[in-house]
Amino acid sequence: MTKESQSSEGTLEKIVSLAKRRGFVFQGSEIYGGLAGMWDYGPLGVSLKRNIVDAWWKKFVSGREDMYAVDTAVIMNPRVWEASGHVKGFADSLESGQKFNVMFKTSVGAGDGAVGSFLRPETAQGTFVNFKNVIDSFHPKLPFGIAQVGKAFRNEIAPRDFLFRSREFEQMEVEYFIREKDWQRQFDYWREEMLSWVESIGVSRKSIHELEVPPAQRAHYSKRTLDFEYDFPFGRKELYGLAYRGDFDLKSHQSASGTALEYLDEDPPAGPDGTVGAGGKDRFIPHVIEPTFGVDRTVLALLCEAYNEDELGGEKRVFLKFPKHLAPVRVAVFPLLKNKPNLVAKAREVFRMVRKEIPNAMFDDNGNIGKRYRRQDEIGTPHCITVDFETLENDTVTVRDRDSGRQERFAVHKLAEVLS
Known about the structure:
By secondary structure, this protein is an alpha+beta fold. It contains 13 helices and 22 strands. About 35% of the residues lie in helices and about 30% in strands. Helix 2 (about 45-60) crosses helix 9 (about 295-305).
């Protein structure tokens, strides 16, 4: 083992330890010895995940006019997975060479009437089987997307690397419906959108590498796949994926269900020869571009990207350098001393005022002021506000910056402006 690999493994161990110590991520069922590939999110992990999903939703769903959202069932009619090819083709190889389908089996109903089914291994099929419902309800114009955030389940043979490969995970995904002739242009557009997202969450472009997946390694539905890989401490691994699924899914479900899943364009663009479909209408099955974002892998990448060790005030410290809009705690408010009722009361007053503007604020009076700063650094809190005896005299407080450790005094009534 090289010194570099030892250092990388050590970094991951430190991140896993910090994640548990500060309430980001816990081992699932830990008091019973855990269960491989299952993780629970603690209070700060939930907040970080929520901030990631909210930022994604704002950029790719609510911030666009061409996107429609669904939230589909985890368990579907088993015929869905037959039509999609998952029953026959969604498998890993065991060491012995036998194929092992990684879908979790379950049953619906009781007794002799129970029907076998699966926990969904991806959110995409729930979107495809609702394609007709969306176009019948909203009559969207091409191109348009259907977005979904939800859980998926895969019975991984060897879950590993903390949150990277787990058996229960969350996806943020778009199925973007287009005309076949536009696929290359739309693929390039979504590639740029995904790279823009990476930068917006504070992940360095230097840590992202694009991998063109060769045909033999692509999923059965894919005509082109681009993986966005990240330099994790355990190696360069897939973070997100961009696939051109063609018309495979809608065509498969149309054939298997007997339900027409065509798109009717009542005002189609003219072809090269100036002609359009019969009667001025065009009926066809759209093709699909699919950008996929893993929530859990995003959490892990952000923990890795944000993890820093430095020296401040002659002491070593660890801090998480989250972007401010993603930090699980945006600001913490302290009384200088917890045993002085007047300081505590004033700190509570400041906290209530700050929380009106910044909901993910925290009140912290546990331990001495130095320990509180170190705790908030490990949490990744961008700013700490300390209420001291000078506050009682002139209504100013100390605001400390996480990254530099620099402290400045500001009037309480200017805090909202300063923090924004």
